[in-house]
Amino acid sequence: MKTDFKTLLSKLIDHDFEFILIGGFAATSYGSNYVTRDLDICAVLSPANIELLRKILADLHPKHRLTAEKLSFLDIPQDLNGIKNLYLQTDAGLLDLISDVIGVGNYEAVSKSAVEIQIFGRKCKIISLEDLIKSKLTLKRDKDLLVAKELGVIYKKIENE
Question: Which pTM does this prediction carry?
Fold first, then answer.
């Protein structure tokens, strides 16, 4: 399934859902050649934010993608307290919502050094390049280490300009 990043990001931004762009799409935004299939964002997953997210995504038929039954996100979970991460499949593609970025921290910690960019004609917060590198190195998966190395080269190039 191909992810329509423009549709997902536009819906979130246009409905004032607070988030920070992280993961592979953030790496690509900084100039990485890494190709990603999903949209990863960091957000506070409070009951109010989850209800807002349900309204925003309703017409995209969101389902939990890591469950065998592909349960509807519009109905489940019913108890919205204590949710840490959501991994959704929508008509516009894959959307992963993370409350804590490994190696960096929660939304508040990521927000401290996040930067604002223009994307698809809209303003969007994105994880700082330094924090993205730190997170990729902490994950220690082969693909993340390759992206961290590439982002390190980009970081040095930006520093020298």
Answer: 0.93
Question: How many other CB atoms are there within 10 angstroms of residue 129's CB atom?
Answer: 21
The full 3-state SS of the chain, as one line of letters, equals: CCCCHHHHHHHHHHCCCCCEEEHHHHHHHCCCCCCCCEEEEECCCCHHHHHHHHHHHHHHCCEECCCCCCCECCCCCCCCCCCCEEEEEECCEEEEEECEECCCEEHHHHHHHCEEEEECCEEEEECCHHHHHHHHHHHCCHHHHHHHHHHHHHHHHHHHC
The topology under which CATH files domain 5-160 is Beta Polymerase; domain 2 (3.30.460)
Give, in order, the Cα–Cα distances in Å from 49 to each of 24, 44, 52, 63, 66: 23, 7, 5, 17, 21
CA atoms of 14 and 19, how far apart (whole Å): 12
pLDDT tens, residue by residue, 70-124: 789 998 888 888 899 999 999 999 999 999 999 999 999 999 999 999 999 999 9
